[in-house]
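hey can u run this one w/ zinc ion bound, need the structure tokens asap thx
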Amino acid sequence: MKKDTIILGIETSCDETAAAVVKNGTEIISNVVASQIESHKRFGGVVPEIASRHHVEQMTVVLEDAINEADVAWDEIDAIAVTEGPGLVGALLVGVNAAKALAFAKQKPLIGVHHIAGHIYANRLEKEFAFPLLALIVSGGHTELILMKEHGHYELIGQTRDDAAGEAYDKVARMLKLPYPGGPQIDRLAAKGSANIHFPRAWLEDDSFDFSFSGLKSAVINKMHNAAQRGETLEPADIAASFQESVIEVLTAKTYRAAAMYEVKQVIVAGGVAANRGLRDKLKQQFINTAIPLHFPALNLCTDNAAMIAAAGTILYEQGRRDGLDLNASAKLTLK
Ligand code: KG4
Ligand code: ZN
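ok here u go:
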């Protein structure tokens, strides 16, 4: 019988310090996340220097918790997988250095993981992949459609030309004076409003799977300024609902068209914005009458965590990937 593969994952690319232990890339044994959201809230966004300091303070505690909760001995752990990029370089470095120190001290293989591969593999902790697979990635830094024909293989078929979906959510939330992170706030507010304001949809060229959200963001600003100049007030819940409808209509339509065109066997959604209730509902409606299964991770697996990094690292481990102790953090890393 094949031995289980047990991977320790580490993630520090943005504002969550996380460590997790995952079995065979599919089963979470422990998953510890220390969020810094409260520390960044008063600045309205993530402050890189503060993020790095918190990672330094939290890293060993989170690692100890993840190992203790998993109740595994070090000799059962096959390798250490860590997010090497993309993300905030000072934040990434804390995780990469912790992983390197552990790999050296415990004599374990070290594997660098792309953050987005992690988001994709969060889905595999709940549902086995069926290829070809289409992944819609919607996070604070990324909006992409990725085709996967096999494990660890990523073909970019569309991406944002300007802002990421999460970034647009956060910016519009700031205009509405909602606290950081804005995505979940807009999501909640949108449920109380009606989408009665028309905002543009950036369809781009007919055959394009690319996205664009900066025009929408400007349209929201203009609408609010114009209303203020006329002494009118727009209902914030209606702005949130109308903005959200514009975002999810384009995301859903392009995902659906790509899924049909590439004849995929599964569609998965990944990244923080995958937690959006409006997006989840709309995609479900779109795919319910098709033969294509659709999967979203549980809410705690949509946002940054280390179980997803361990899950993606498991595939790399099985494919024989090993990094040296010269592994470095990379703020801009492409997914290959
Ligand atoms: O994947 P993630 O945790 O970090 C990055 O890798 O970027 O995504 C964070 C993003 C933020 O922009 C946040 O506002 C957004 O995901 N987000 C949401 C929701 N929950 C988180 N956006 C819309 N609706 C949500 N429910
Ligand atoms: Zn992320």
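The mean pLDDT is 95. anyway lmk if its weird
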